[in-house]
Amino acid sequence: MPRILDSLRALPRSHAVALAMFAAASLLVIAYAVHSGTPLRYSDEKEYVEIARGIVAGDGYRLYGADSAYRPPAWPLLLAAFLAVGVPESLLPAVSAALLVIAAVSAGVLGVRITRCALGAIAAPFVLLYPINAYTATTLYPQALATAALVLLVLYASRAGDGHLSTRSALAIGALLAVSVLSVPTMGFSAAVIGLWILVRQHGNRFRYAVAAGLTA
Q1: For the segment 101-115, what is each residue's pLDDT rounded down to a tens digit?
Q2: Which domain holds residue 165?
Q3: What does the UniProt keyword field contain (predicted)?
């Protein structure tokens, strides 16, 4: 923590102001999600929460009283994890909003990495405040989860040509691939392309990467 504080103090004033504004916007998005996200407005949201309740209660993956594979499992499982530790349902929209913040921060880091310039961080507020992203972050739709997973995958892809990725990174990539497919299946193709691109770029490390990523995918 002291090291982080020292880094923040060393930031140029303009960068510190921009960071503070982004932090304020992130808190505003989370607060608005909690304020407007309940009561649940859409049948999809209610179904995700019903499945999550059933998982926490030990009834399994059920919808309308019967076993179901109608909804992809990643999002209800994540909601169930929060419900299991005592998070009230009224605060669940904050999970979506927090995931959007993670996606935005990752996009900012990616922008800086690609442009090799601090101005690349402007990608962060664009992702955070893009109307469709901001709207879905106030709902219990899985789009924020899938978006965060996909942006993190692209971030890993940007590093793939720099050298051998660690086993830990490969395991994380496999998990992100699984989350992308099992939260919003239509994003599966994009996630697969990114995963294969990383494989191609891992010269001399392809077997270890494929095995490690395959373990968690």
Answers
A1: 999 999 999 999 999
A2: 149-217
A3: Cell membrane, Glycosyltransferase, Membrane, Transferase, Transmembrane, Transmembrane helix
